[in-house]
Design a protein that fits this description.
It is a single chain. This protein has 558 residues and is of the alpha+beta class. It has 4 domains: 2-162, Muramoyl-pentapeptide Carboxypeptidase, domain 2, CATH 3.30.1380.10; 212-381, Chitosanase, subunit A, domain 1 (Up-down Bundle); 409-459, no CATH class; 480-557, no CATH class. The chain is 51% helix and 6% strand. It has helices at residues 16-31, 45-57, 97-110, 136-140, 150-162, 183-186, 209-222, 242-249, 255-259, 263-276, 285-298, 300-313, 331-339, 342-357, 363-381, 409-420, 424-442, 449-458, 480-486, 490-507, 517-525, 527-557; strands spanning 36-40, 78-85, 88-90, 113-117, 123-131, 236-237, 240-241. Strands 1, 2, 3, 4 and 5 form a 5-stranded antiparallel beta sheet that branches. The protein has a two-stranded antiparallel ribbon with strand order 6-7. Strand 6 and strand 7 form a beta hairpin. Helix 14 (342-357) packs antiparallel against helix 15. The relative contact order is 0.06. Mean pLDDT is 77; it is low at 197-202, 395-429, 444-450 and 456-468.
C-alpha cells in the first residue's frame, strides 16, 4: 500500500488532453526564468484518501476538501505546479513571487488549463491547474474527455482495480480488459481454498517485462556509484544523479545517500523519469531502446529531439510534413515512432546521437566510454525484433568521422567529383546539409532546424554580391589582380603542366616534331627543373580544387 500513497510527478501517463500542455507550460515559464516544476500529476485514490483524512483530523493541515475519486488528479487531468529553487520545493507566494504564480495561471489558461475557484470566484489553491470544462461528477460516472490513449487508460484502469475502499468510476472503454470465463465451465470448478487471495498492484519496474528487457542494457551501461570531477551530473549511482534523486524524493540528499541508493529504487526512477516520460512503452522495441538510452545519458529532451531529427533526416513525413524538432513527444512524434520501420529508425538515430556526442566539450574525457557504449548498443539492437512500418527511400549517412569542412571523407570525394564534373547544385546541397546537420547536433537548446538554416544562410549574405560574387578567400590568396587572372584556370594549368612535365619526356623522348625537342632535352638534362615544375604545377592543381570547394561552400550558403 505504501507505493500507492507516494507522490507521483510523472507526466507521461497523463491524459493526452493535457500531457503536451503541461510540458509547454513548464517550458514557457522556465524560459522566463520562473522556476516552476510539476510537483504532482496522477494521484492515486489511496493518496487522496490519506490527504483527505489528514485534513479532517487536523483542520489546520487541510490540503484537499474531497475524498477518493473526487479530485481531477485521480483521472490524470490535473497537475500541481510548485516552485523548485536551489533543490527545494517552495510554495512561497509572497512579495515579488506573487507575480510568478499569477503568470503560471496566465500561461496555463493559454493552454486550456485553469486553477480551481469556489462559487464566489475565489481561488482555492494556487498550485493546482486542470483541464477546462471537466467536472469530478462527470468523471466519476465514466464520462471522460475524447482522445485518451492506451498509456493513460491502462494506468487509470490499474488505479480502479487497486482500489478496495468503495465505489469506483467506470474504466475507460479502451482500457484492456481480460474477458470473463464461461459461467458454465466455472460452475464445475471447485476453488482451491489453500491458495492465497490474489492481490492487485500497480505495474512497477520489476513487473514490467518489456521494460526489464530493454533496461538490461542500461543496467550494464550505467554500472554503480561514480563521482568524476568532470561529470556535470556530480555524484551518480546506477545512472541516477544527486539532483535527480533529490527531485524524486522531494528533499535534499547527501552524497552518501546517493551511494546507498538501492537498485530497486533506481530502476523505478529510471522507468518513471526516462522510459515512461519518453513514452517508450508505445514504441517498437528498437526505437524505444535508442530513445531510452539517450534519455538516461543526455536527458529526455535530447532523446526526443534526436528521434525527431532521425525521422526528418530519413526524409519521412507525418501529416504531410516533417516533425518539429522541439523535444516534445506529442501526437505527431509518437505516430512517427510507431509507424516508421524500427530497424531503419534506430540505425540513423544512433548515427546522429554518436555524431552529437563527438561535439561535446568533455568528449576527450568520456569519449572512449561513450563510443564503446554506442558500439554495444548497436550489438544489443540486433537482439531485438526488427519491427515493421514505413521505410525511407534514402537514408542520410552521418556516422563517418567529420573533417574540417563539416564533411566526412566519403562526402569530400563526392564533392570534388561533383564540382569537377560541373555538378555545382549537387555539391551545394551536400555541403549545406552537412553544415546544418553539424549545427543541429551542437545545439543544446531548443533551436529548431529552420532557425539554424536561417542562421547559416543569413550570416554570409552581406559578404556576397548578388550579380557578380567576389573572389573566394582561396582564389584571392595572391591578391585580387592575380586571383582574377587565374580564376577558373588554375586546375587546367596544373593538370596540363603535369602532363607536359611527367608524361611527355617518356612518350616523346626526342620530341619527334610533336613537342619542341629542346624543351624535352632540358627536362631530361635537369631533373631539378622537372622536380620544381612538378611541385609548382601540383600546387596549381590543388589550389584549383580548393578554389572549387570554396566556391561550392559559398554557393551553398547563398
Amino acid at each position: 500500500m505504501s507505493g500507492l500513497t507516494k507522490r507521483d510527478g510523472d507526466i507521461s501517463r497523463l491524459h493526452p488532453a493535457i500531457r503536451d500542455s503541461v510540458v509547454a507550460i513548464q517550458k514557457k515559464l522556465n524560459s522566463e526564468n520562473i522556476p516552476f516544476q510539476v510537483f504532482e500529476a496522477f494521484r492515486t485514490p489511496h493518496r487522496q484518501a490519506n490527504l483527505y483524512a489528514k485534513g479532517r483530523t487536523k483542520p489546520g493541515n487541510k490540503v484537499t476538501w474531497v475524498g477518493p475519486w473526487g479530485s481531477i488528479h485521480q483521472y490524470g487531468l490535473a497537475v500541481d505546479f510548485v516552485l523548485f529553487e536551489n533543490g527545494n520545493w517552495s510554495w512561497d507566494d509572497s512579495g515579488a513571487k506573487a507575480k510568478w504564480w499569477s503568470r503560471m495561471h496566465e500561461v496555463a489558461a493559454d493552454h486550456n488549463m485553469t486553477p480551481l475557484y469556489n462559487k464566489k470566484k475565489q481561488l482555492i489553491e494556487k498550485p493546482h491547474v486542470q483541464l477546462m470544462g471537466v467536472t469530478s461528477s462527470e468523471l466519476r460516472n465514466g464520462i471522460y474527455p475524447d482522445g485518451g490513449d492506451a498509456i493513460w487508460a491502462e494506468h487509470l484502469a490499474d488505479l480502479i482495480d487497486s482500489w478496495d475502499g468503495g465505489a469506483t468510476p467506470a474504466k475507460p472503454s479502451h482500457a484492456p480488459e481480460k474477458p470473463a470465463l464461461d459461467p458454465a465451465v466455472v460452475a464445475d470448478i471447485e476453488p482451491d481454498a489453500t491458495l492465497p487471495a490474489p492481490t492487485v498492484a500497480l505495474d512497477t519496474a520489476d513487473t514490467d517485462a518489456r521494460f526489464q528487457k530493454l533496461h538490461s542494457f542500461i543496467k550494464w551501461a550505467e554500472g554503480g556509484f561514480a563521482n568524476h570531477p568532470d561529470d556535470t551530473g556530480g555524484a551518480t549511482n546506477f545512472g541516477i544523479t544527486r539532483e535527480t534523486l533529490e527531485t524524486w524524493r522531494g528533499r535534499p540528499v547527501t552524497e552518501d545517500e546517493v551511494r546507498a541508493l538501492t537498485r530497486e529504487e533506481a530502476d523505478q526512477i529510471l522507468r518513471t523519469n526516462y522510459y515512461a516520460r519518453c513514452r517508450c512503452g508505445e514504441m517498437p522495441d528498437r526505437t524505444a531502446m535508442v530513445v531510452y538510452n539517450t534519455a538516461v545519458l543526455s536527458g529526455t529532451g535530447k532523446a526526443i529531439k534526436t528521434l525527431q531529427e532521425a525521422f526528418n533526416a530519413m526524409g519521412m513525413t507525418v501529416n504531410g510534413g516533417p516533425l518539429k524538432v522541439d523535444g516534445i513527444i506529442g501526437r505527431n512524434t509518437i505516430a512517427a515512432a510507431r509507424e516508421t520501420d524500427a530497424e531503419a529508425m534506430s540505425e540513423i538515430y544512433v548515427d546522429l546521437y554518436e555524431a552529437y556526442l563527438k561535439t561535446r566539450h568533455n568528449f576527450d574525457t568520456f569519449g572512449n566510454g561513450w563510443m564503446n557504449r554506442t558500439a554495444k548498443l548497436r550489438e544489443f539492437l540486433t537482439t531485438l525484433p526488427k519491427g515493421a512500418g514505413k521505410r525511407p527511400t534514402t537514408v542520410m549517412k552521418v556516422s563517418n568521422k567529420p573533417l574540417g569542412l563539416d564533411l566526412d571523407a566519403d562526402d569530400l570525394v563526392s564533392l570534388i567529383a561533383a564540382v569537377s564534373t560541373g555538378g555545382k547544385s549537387a555539391a551545394a546541397k551536400l555541403v549545406l546539409s552537412r553544415i546544418i546537420q553539424k549545427k543541429v547536433a551542437e545545439a543544446d537548446d531548443d533551436t529548431a532546424a529552420e532557425s539554424i538554416l536561417k542562421d547559416v544562410v543569413e550570416q554570409k549574405l552581406d559578404a556576397l554580391e548578388p550579380e557578380k560574387p567576389a573572389l573566394t578567400p582561396v582564389n584571392a590568396a595572391l591578391g585580387e589582380t592575380v586571383g582574377k587572372l587565374l580564376n577558373g584556370k588554375k586546375s587546367v594549368i596544373g593538370i596540363v603542366g603535369l602532363v607536359l612535365t611527367s608524361v611527355i619526356p617518356a612518350v616523346f623522348p626526342e620530341g619527334g616534331g610533336v613537342i619542341d625537342p629542346t624543351f624535352v632535352q632540358q627536362l631530361k638534362a635537369n631533373p631539378d627543373i622537372q622536380t620544381i615544375l612538378f611541385t609548382v604545377l601540383s600546387i596549381f592543381t590543388g589550389w584549383g580544387f580548393l578554389g572549387k570547394i570554396d566556391k561550392a561552400i559559398r554557393d551553398a550558403r547563398t
